[in-house]
Amino acid sequence: MSHLGTDGKLRWNACAWPSVPGTNSKVLPYSPRFKWGASHHTRIIRLKEFSHAVFGSFTSAAMNKQNDHCNTHPELPSGSLRFALALALLIWLAALTSGMAQAQELRLLTSPWPPSNYIRTDGIPAGISVDVIEAIKDRLKLETPVEVLPWARGYLVAQSDPNVLLFTAGRTPERVDMGFHFVGPVVMWTHALMARKGSEIAVDAVDAVRSQNLVVAGVRGSWQIRLLQDAGVQTVETENHETGARMLLAERVDLWITSRLQASSVLKDLGRDADSVTAIHTVKRSPSYLMISAETDPDIIARWEAAYEDLKQTDFFEKTVNKWSDQLGIALQFRPAEGFSARPAPHDKTGS
């Protein structure tokens, strides 16, 4: 009665299956194998087209006019053919319903960027933003796990597939144009030039760093180090923030560019106090968000946005501030318009 062709389409016996109206083809217009990455609206359109092709082709002309080579074969009785067609459509509907149910949960991706998101020594994702994600999951009664991937890979997945939430990410005009949706902000990153505690270095602009011939350590390939290099500042590129912190504390460089939140996490891992360094100039403040991929069902986006807003009516953010202030050894704060951020330390020489 049927077989699967090399092109992946289900082919039926030409004598038992009517032609599609307006064509000479005996091939179903869509394979039963379904691409669940397609949007909800695309799936509905395909289902309608499939149904029309199946039942629209079921006409007396299609039933009575068969190819010459089929004349020697008995036709399938109309009642049996109707039953077969109905059964095929029911199978399709069952698969569609199953796929739509699975699509109701976003795939949750993050990349290591402590203390917002990172992997604990026991392999469990953790961090300030991870706590926000888990709180929203509880409100929505979801059990989707958080996957930790390198940023470049996670960003590629979010660009390619619907129903993906990547956190945290900056809201840029380019990403808005690409169709991403943003929930938050969740964390405000205060990127600053850090000096050793007690340092007499004073700068009020990046140009002052260059004019004083100061050397700054920063992560290789980061926008932070590129910004300094474009301004003509002497830099030392490091593999990670830990190396930059060590170089600053060992007086091998004059300054270290990082965020205040990240500095607190790095210094804790190095066994140093958070006040071992001081922020002397804020380079940029960048809010970051929960970023949801394009073509995601608007109802799903609305539920996540509503759940995040609902959290603001609880004591969740206050408890999270207290938890991470204790763990990081610095005072945090939460402002709805900015998200979580580090309070300016008394010894900092910047107003951030």
Describe the model.
This protein has helices at residues 40-56, 60-64, 78-103, 128-140, 151-160, 173-177, 206-211, 223-230, 241-249, 260-269, 298-311, 316-328, and strands at 2-4, 10-12, 107-110, 118-119, 125-126, 146-148, 164-170, 181-196, 215-219, 234-238, 255-259, 277-292, 332-335, 339-342. The strands form four sheets. It has an eight-stranded mixed sheet with strand order 6-3-7-12-8-11-9-10, with helices on both faces. Strands 1-2 form a two-stranded antiparallel sheet. It is elongated. It folds into three domains: 2-103, no CATH class; 107-189 and 286-342, 3-Layer(aba) Sandwich (D-Maltodextrin-Binding Protein, domain 2), CATH 3.40.190; 193-284, Periplasmic binding protein-like II (D-Maltodextrin-Binding Protein, domain 2, 3-Layer(aba) Sandwich), CATH 3.40.190. Helix 1 (40-56) runs antiparallel to helix 3 (78-103) and helix 4 crosses helix 11. The protein is of the alpha/beta class and 352 residues long. Residues 9-77 and 96-103 have low confidence and may be disordered. The chain is 39% helix and 22% strand. InterPro entries: Solute-binding_3/MltF_N. Pfam families: SBP_bac_3. This is Ectoine/hydroxyectoine ABC transporter solute-binding protein EhuB. Residues 105-328 form the Solute-binding protein family 3/N-terminal domain.
Summarize the structure.
It is built from 12 helices and 14 strands.
